[in-house]
Amino acid sequence: MDYKENILELVGHTPLVKLNRLTQGIKATVLAKMESLNPGYSVKDRIGRAMIEAAEREGSLKPGGTIIEATSGNTGIGLALTAAVKGYRCIFVMTDKASIEKVRYLKALGADVVVVPASAKPGTPDHYVSTAQRIARETPNSFYPNQYAHPANPEAHYRTTGPEIWEQTEGRITHFVAGIGTGGTISGTGRFLKEQNANIRIIGADPYGSVFKTYKETGKTHEVTPYLVEGIGQEVIPENAQLKYVDEIINITDRESFEMSRQLGRVEGIFCGGSTGTNLAAALKVARTLDANGLVVFIVCDTGEHYLSKHHSDEWLKEKRLLEPQRITAELISTTKGATAPHALVTAAPTDRVADILARMDELGISYVPVLEEGRSVGSLRENHVLTKVLRKRELLEAPVSEVMDASFPVVEEDASAADVTRQLQAAPAVLVQTYGRITGIITRHDVLDMPTR
Ligand SMILES: Cc1ncc(COP(=O)(O)O)c(C=O)c1O
């Protein structure tokens, strides 16, 4: 029979996948190390398993014990699935920057999750690390792995990730690119690869705002500025970030990280998180400088599934002012109008009673209503015009909408550009958005004022 003893046997041994389209014009080979194919869909499954098994060997984790960790999510998932197999309880402390998908995922694996503000500074009681430490102190028979300092973290990559890449590339790898969160991946893999061939360049990909690049280059840290990519970058240097194994650190913006993450899905079919975008951006920058002997391996840290409500959502990118203006479409504007706008499109039929529609408009605080017949726009109601007509002739309140309506608002396709929408709004107070022949949204002049201009 062919089966695994348990899910943990699927951790590691992830394949390398060559990029073909994103690398056009690049002579070097660029390979993605598919850590998103681990059973918990991230590189952190390796250390979740390794830290728990090290603690069992050392006796710091005993049967019936509770595992408590500060995590941006993925380490929690790696720990939780190991704990599930081995019968331990888990409590995770996360910041409110972590996506809701990750919180729910951890709960689905049986863990308890405590969420604290991302704004809390290191060392303060609300910081996610201090909170995890406090809960660990207060919980009997608990184990606090501390991925930032636990030697089993870089060790797991030294024993597994490094040797896998070395064997898979038959020793031909020339550059390794990874993000730095705890530093475990880059330090452990980097150390192994350097021991095989000291000429292999180990490159860290770091968000602008994080301290690693400055620290590597000057030995000093600086005040961090906030960034949105999850799981990588730091404000203090963790023990597991052994930067002596790192040759160079490249800073990448949020905008570039998210754009590259989305492109990897669109262009190569590899669905990934934001930190993978950071790595990919750095990998391509490096690869562009190499000849055909260059062989760059970068880490695909986790799956895009965890970020469907974040950078894989146009709405979220627009809210964070990270969407290219030319990618703001009529559909996006109409679905991301101010939080107070009613989301379902309010429409009238030509046969509706004027008084009923006016009452509805008053109740919802809307001034423009399209009049639709079989899904097509046949007219429009503009509150001020209708009220003027009704004031002159009160009987119109009982009349059908068709007697008071104006000409239809202009109609644009859902993929019309923001510029097209703006142009139409110079002549009409509202435009309608059409999706495959059906009217699905309305945009007014106010909605367009809310749009980011860059
Ligand atoms: C999404 C994601 N990417 C990358 C990393 C970085 O890996 P490491 O902690 O090994 O430096 C992490 C770690 O927290 C992560 O959660």
Would you write up a description of this structure?
- The protein contains 15 helices and 15 strands.
- By secondary structure, it is an alpha/beta fold.
- The chain has 3 domains: 7-42 and 151-312, Rossmann fold, CATH 3.40.50.1100; 45-143, Rossmann fold, CATH 3.40.50.1100; 327-449, CBS-domain (Roll).
- The strands form 4 sheets. Strands 1-2-10-7-8-9 form a 6-stranded mixed sheet, with helices on both faces.
- β14 and β15 (438-444) form a beta hairpin.
- α1 crosses α2 (74-86).
- The mean pLDDT is 94.
- Residues 44, 72, 74-75, 179-186, 230-232, 273, 275, 301-302 line the site of pyridoxal-5'-phosphate.
Quick overview:
It is built from 15 helices and 15 strands. With about 450 residues, it is an alpha/beta fold.
Q: What are the segments in which pLDDT stays under 50 over at least 5 consecutive residues?
A: none
Question: What kind of sheet is the major sheet?
Answer: 6 strands, mixed
Question: What ligand molecules are bound, each kind once?
Answer: pyridoxal-5'-phosphate
Tell me the CATH topology of the largest domain. Answer: Rossmann fold
Question: At the first level of CATH, what is the class of the largest domain?
Answer: Alpha Beta
Instruction: Give the C-alpha Rg.
Output: 27 Å
Secondary structure class reads: alpha/beta
The topology string of helices and strands comes to EEHEHEHEHEHEHEHEHHEHHHEEHEHEEH
First-to-last CA distance: 58 Å
